[in-house]
């Protein structure tokens, strides 16, 4: 796999809404960062993966969305996107951060990619979503920020 297969999407980002919703199930939340974010799509022979990053100021880049089509999950494509982002932004930012629920489906991914557990926003999911969200059988409540030094 080479870098050319990762495409910067600058127009019609909503064309990828289905995949964006896999990473962040509330469209209203996606709308808050999609236009100002840099979006990348990785096309694989099996399916697609994408991510969106935003400049949060003070040298912090935030991974707002990362999603790999179910058919090609656990094949290294999520990690591939993280590595790509690190390479591309390491001279402009000192930290890549990602907020996630305390989910058995996402926390191991960030930890395996080298992120370190950081601050917590208590009850973020209970407060911002109008229905309970379950992942891997666990209801999401707090938001945990994971950080990776670039
Ligand atoms: C989370 C997600 C992006 C991970 O992408 P992926 O391509 O499946 O992950 P990778 O294959 O690159 O995995 C990288 C490492 O994380 C580990 N990992 C990934 N998901 C894991 C899981 N659910 N449980 C345990 N380990 C996991 C892999 O084993 C691998 O580790 P290793 O190479 O050291 O063995 C993908 O599962 C996804 O799109 N999920 C749905 C959307 C989502 O939840 N997005 C995140 C929102 S915060």
Structure, described:
The protein has helices spanning 17-23, 27-33, 77-89, 107-112, 124-128; strands spanning 6-9, 38-43, 48-55, 60-68, 95-101, 116-121, 134-135, 138-139, 143-149. It has 150 residues and is α+β, with helices and mostly antiparallel strands. It has a single domain, classed as 3-Layer(aba) Sandwich (Aminopeptidase), CATH 3.40.630. It has a seven-stranded mixed β-sheet with strand order 1-2-3-4-5-9-6, with helices on both faces. The longest helix has 13 residues, at 77-89. It starts with 5 loop residues before the first strand and ends with a strand. The model has no long low-confidence stretch (mean pLDDT 94). It binds coenzyme A. Coenzyme A binds at residues 22-23, 66-68, 73-79, 100, 105-106, 108-109, 112-113.
Provide keyphrases for this structure.
alpha+beta; 34% strand; Aminopeptidase; two-stranded antiparallel ribbon; globular; 9 strands; binds coenzyme A; 150 residues
């Amino acid at each position: 796999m080479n870098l050319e297969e990762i495409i910067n999407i600058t127009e019609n980002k909503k064309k990828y809404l289905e995949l964006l919703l896999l990473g962040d199930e509330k469209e209203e939340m996606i709308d808050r960062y999609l236009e100002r974010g840099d979006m990348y799509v990785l096309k694989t022979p099996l399916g697609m993966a994408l991510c969106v990053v935003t400049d949060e100021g003070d040298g912090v880049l935030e991974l707002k969305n990362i999603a790999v089509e179910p058919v090609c999950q656990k094949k290294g494509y999520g990690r591939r996107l993280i590595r790509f982002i690190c390479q591309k932004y390491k001279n402009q930012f000192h930290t890549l951060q990602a907020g996630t629920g305390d989910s058995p489906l996402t926390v191991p991914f960030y930890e395996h990619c080298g992120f370190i557990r950081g601050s917590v926003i208590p009850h973020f999911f209970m407060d911002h979503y109008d229905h309970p969200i379950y992942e891997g059988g666990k209801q999401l409540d707090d938001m945990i920020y994971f950080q990776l030094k670039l």
